[in-house]
Amino acid sequence: MLRTALISLLCAMALILPASASDYGASAVEEALPEEAREIIGSGAVEEALEPEGMLSRLWEAALSRVKELFAPAAGSAAAILCAALLCSAVQAFADGQAEEYVTLAGVLAVTAIAIGDARTFISAGTEALGELNTFSHALLPSLTAAAAAGGAVTSAAAKYAATALFMDVLITAARGIIIPLAYIYMAAAVAHAATGSAAAAGAAGILKWLAMSATALIMTAFTAYLSISGAVSGAADAVTLRTAKSAISTALPVVGGIISDAAGTVVAGAGLIKGAVGSLGLVATAAVCLTPFISLGLQYLMYKLAAALAEAFAPGRLPKLISSLGGVFGMVLGVVGAAALMLFISVASLIRTVAA
């Protein structure tokens, strides 16, 4: 009996002590904020996250500001591409036979030169955003996991953290080592098809695009499936463990058991408050990190697609398809950045909602 009482008392102390000794890593999360996110969110981020309306308002204002800044360069690229296509069409009207192929080749080279400059700038920005998300997640997820575990969801919080850490690393590694290189190879295949009209190059471009998109979709599908299954199983285990612990404390310490249970409840409530604040900060910070690359890649994608649609009216047949394919490159990278952000969003939301009954 005495042994049981001592074990129960130690369990209660383990619940109580972390609350007074630590902020569950909330300060580390604030320090780990990427520079762009810090500029948008401002100082005192964790405290302000308790009332996130102000942060969301600043995020919206930053989004509008980024659209205004980035719209002109994106529109300029589309205009330059349309001018090249228009000039190619005008010259081709006076050419015949073999000369038409040379004119088309010149147009392909001009459009490709513009697209390569855009790709180098914006794909690099997307890759950098992936790295920042990965680094920030290393501070954010442990903090949320510690707060959720202090609330009694030890098993489920650890399972969700492990799942996110694993699949986030897999996605970042796949993006840098497979998907981004595939995007560049896809661009080369699309250019080769436009320059030569080769059916083999067109088929290779289609396969490469399918591989890149399928890799992203496969990782996200595996992540959500694993998170759902592990969350359901570990959540049930947490509920049983917590009920057993409460029962043991009340039985072993009949006089002060209720007091210890109330103290533990206070710790759980405090941990939940920190978890909510850090979670809100994490969601806004994730959006802030992705804001510029997401808007820039999105605008480039839309402008290239618009330019392709307009070029259909006057340009030689292969040029509009090339412009559309080059826009698809930005869409592929946009999908990877969006998948990484969505993965972190799902994880944060899942950890915020983690409750041990």
Helix content: over 70%
- The chain-level structural class is mainly alpha
Number of helices: 10
What does the main sheet amount to? Answer: none
Number of strands: 0
Instruction: Using the alpha-carbon principal axes, give the shape.
Output: elongated
Question: How would you briefly describe this protein structure?
Answer:
The chain is an all-alpha fold. The chain has helices at 2-21, 26-31, 35-41, 45-48, 53-92, 98-150, 154-196, 199-252, 257-311, 318-352.
Describe this protein's structure.
It is a single chain. By secondary structure, this protein is mainly α. The chain has helices at residues 2-21, 26-31, 35-41, 45-48, 53-92, 98-150, 154-196, 199-252, 257-311, 318-352.
Write the layout of secondary structure elements.
Layout: H1 2-21, H2 26-31, H3 35-41, H4 45-48, H5 53-92, H6 98-150, H7 154-196, H8 199-252, H9 257-311, H10 318-352
Helix pairs in contact: 1-8, 1-9, 3-9, 5-6, 5-9, 6-7, 6-9, 6-10, 7-8, 7-10, 8-9, 8-10, 9-10
List keywords for this structure.
single chain, 357 residues, mainly alpha, elongated, disordered N terminus
